[in-house]
């Protein structure tokens, strides 16, 4: 191997806004078979908006939005921002015993009432019945929205549907990657029905959904054990272990510092076409060395 041409490849990548940590990373990027994408903030804009609020058990809209937004004050999740913005309240009350449950949601007590806000698995874990809202959950998810449930005093009082549109270049960039022969996988903590709806729109081959943050690296390891050479493309703190486990970790520009520190490749452009550039440059560089 001539290190000179690798150095030239790293330089060429930089011209395209692709920062490659070392020669090894460029080499590994030339032999990948599978690309695993985080959903939120990588395939999607990562700027979710509330699109629907359904009420149950005699709840009223003001109370529900006040409870939900108060809970989300303590969360840094993108869904939290969407709920607080939608509630648009001038002041929010303090929550007692606030807790974040990673990959599931948040909980706490307001005015003496125990509250839970998160996905159906969170409600199942806390033994709150969701049978009465199953149909609405499936309907929202099938349309590509993420449904989160609010329970107050042990009863479901609201379903909040949140939508995070695909990045404008996702469909075309994934098409280019398909043409180059990669298997495309989506890895997400979101529910399977929503994930499948978004994957179909984006042109993803395979969905791994409902994965808790600590399970993302395991999912990458499983693909590797099946003989795949895997790149993980992600932006979040949650993605760091998976970025480290992958043969090549690729961090989206504008993502969390932890993701960027962990990844072998960082995209300075917040554009999935930079993934295509990075992989094309690595293949061209390694081809020239043979
Ligand atoms: P992702 O892989 O999409 O980043 P996460 O693991 O962060 O997913 O979250 C998975 C799911 O957990 C979300 O889709 C949501 O249903 C639920 N969840 C997590 N945090 C919150 C929160 N602060 N408020 C409401 N729901 C949440
Ligand atoms: Mg993300």
From TrEMBL:
Localization: Cell membrane
Record family assignment: Belongs to the cation transport ATPase (P-type) (TC 3.A.3) family. Type IB subfamily.
Protein name: Copper-exporting P-type ATPase
Origin species: Erwinia sorbitola
């Amino acid at each position: 191997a001539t290190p000179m041409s690798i150095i030239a490849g790293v330089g060429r990548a930089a011209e395209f806004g692709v920062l490659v940590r070392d020669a090894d990373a460029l080499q590994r990027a030339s032999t990948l078979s599978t690309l695993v994408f985080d959903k939120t903030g990588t395939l999607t804009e990562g700027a979710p908006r509330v699109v629907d609020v359904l009420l149950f058990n005699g709840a009223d809209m003001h109370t529900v939005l006040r409870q939900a937004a108060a809970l989300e004050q303590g969360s840094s999740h993108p869904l939290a921002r969407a709920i607080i913005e939608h509630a648009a309240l001038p002041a929010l009350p303090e929550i007692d015993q606030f807790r974040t449950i990673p990959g599931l949601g948040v909980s706490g007590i307001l005015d003496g009432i125990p509250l839970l806000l998160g996905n159906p698995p969170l409600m199942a874990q806390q033994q709150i019945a969701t049978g009465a809202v199953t149909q609405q959950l499936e309907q929202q998810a099938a349309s590509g929205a993420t449904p989160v449930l609010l329970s107050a005093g042990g009863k479901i009082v609201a379903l909040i549907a949140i939508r995070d549109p695909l990045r404008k270049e996702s469909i075309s960039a994934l098409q280019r990657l398909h043409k180059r022969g990669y298997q495309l996988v989506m890895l997400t903590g979101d529910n399977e029905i929503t994930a499948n709806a978004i994957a179909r729109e984006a042109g993803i081959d395979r969905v791994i959904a409902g994965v808790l943050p600590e399970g993302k690296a395991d999912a990458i390891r499983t693909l590797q054990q099946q003989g795949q050479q895997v790149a993980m493309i992600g932006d979040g703190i949650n993605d760091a272990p998976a970025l480290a486990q992958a043969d090549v970790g690729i961090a989206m520009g504008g993502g969390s510092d932890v993701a960027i520190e962990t990844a072998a490749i960082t995209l300075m452009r917040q554009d999935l076409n930079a993934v295509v550039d990075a992989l094309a440059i690595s293949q061209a560089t390694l081809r020239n060395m043979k």
